[in-house]
Amino acid sequence: MQELHDAPLAPLTTFRLGGPATRLITATTDAEVVDAVREADAAGTPLLIVGGGSNLVIGDQGFAGTALRIATQGFSLDGTRLELAAGEVWTDAVARTVEAGLAGIECLAGIPGSAGATPIQNVGAYGQEVSSTITEVVAYDRAAGETVVIPNAECAFSYRHSRFKAEPDRYVVLRVRFELEDAGGLSAPIKYPETARTLGVEAGDRVPAATARETVLKLRAGKGMVLDPEDHDTWSAGSFFTNPILTEPEFAAFHARVAERLGPDAKAPAFPAGEGLTKTSAAWLIDKAGFTKGYGTGPARISTKHTLALTNRGEATTEDLLTLAREVVAGVHEAFGVTLVNEPVTVGVRL
């Protein structure tokens, strides 16, 4: 277990932003993770869990406490059952399951970060969410002081949310278990319209899992959503805002604002999101409110490839990023009466 003091955190995040931690511990086994958490809790030391750093916005002043970087390794495949250590690189794990001819997470290719973060956010993209394949999450329960195994039904998964996100200071994910599908090398049924169009198939069709993965990687790369050190459009946290979910009265008011602003024939994206709920597109809202690709003149700007990504152009500070984010939130609310919610976790700062 490695320990550093006054350690920079910016290099551990995909934004490349944020000040140092008082102490940084890198744990390479589950036991080291648990020991570090117990030590911090016993001493009353603030604790920040760092995985792949793809969903963190850390304040410029840094973190006054212990940052615990989870660098555990472990990929175990038994038939269709997959177990990943929390520190496993997610996109590499997806590639290995596709190479094994299994389906279920192939459309989650290219998502940066570690496996341990996937149940926290209920990571999803291109028609798949991890909640549909996760069977169990092994976590250290800081309240109980013990390691627990939480079955899918008790994870409280919903859109970009879970029990782990609801109680961020309670659970530290150690391992994630999945049940994948052996469809003879084919993918799960293609659900996302853009993916189906690109593949030239109908929704519900299957294609070779490798083809589905490669197609998603190309789609993500075209939006700056695959990490590339040379491309500042990828110096981001991917989608910075979640897609708003509106009640019937909220959607009616929103629809009226769309007609008022864009004309009576304008139609906003609308997708069923449960009884009495409708999900709309954050990217559409941002664009129609006037924040187009490349918006901004400072060191933090909207991606030139996708309006949903806020980016560090190389010299930004966290405050630069937050200033841009607040401008977008205010502009969308003024235009459409909808309040955007940030997807990344903020540390020492608030939007």
UniProtKB/TrEMBL annotation:
Residues 17-183 form the FAD-binding PCMH-type domain. Belongs to the MurB family. Its EC number is 1.3.1.98. Its cofactor is FAD. The gene is murB. Pfam families: FAD_binding_4, MurB_C. It is found in: Cytoplasm. The keyword NADP applies. The active site is at residues 160, 239, 343. Keywords: Cell cycle, Cell division, Cell shape, Cell wall biogenesis/degradation, Cytoplasm, FAD, Flavoprotein, NADP, Oxidoreductase, Peptidoglycan synthesis. One of its GO terms (cellular component) is cytosol. SUPFAM superfamilies: FAD-binding/transporter-associated domain-like (SSF56176), Uridine diphospho-N-Acetylenolpyruvylglucosamine reductase, MurB, C-terminal domain (SSF56194). It catalyses: UDP-N-acetyl-alpha-D-muramate + NADP(+) = UDP-N-acetyl-3-O-(1-carboxyvinyl)-alpha-D-glucosamine + NADPH + H(+). InterPro entries: FAD-bd_PCMH, FAD-bd_PCMH-like_sf, FAD-bd_PCMH_sub1, FAD-bd_PCMH_sub2, MurB, MurB_C, MurB_C_sf, Oxid_FAD_bind_N. PROSITE patterns: FAD_PCMH. One of its GO terms (biological process) is cell division. NCBIfam families: murB (TIGR00179), PRK13903.1 (NF010478). Cell wall formation. This is UDP-N-acetylenolpyruvoylglucosamine reductase. Pathway: Cell wall biogenesis; peptidoglycan biosynthesis. GO terms for molecular function: FAD binding; UDP-N-acetylmuramate dehydrogenase activity.
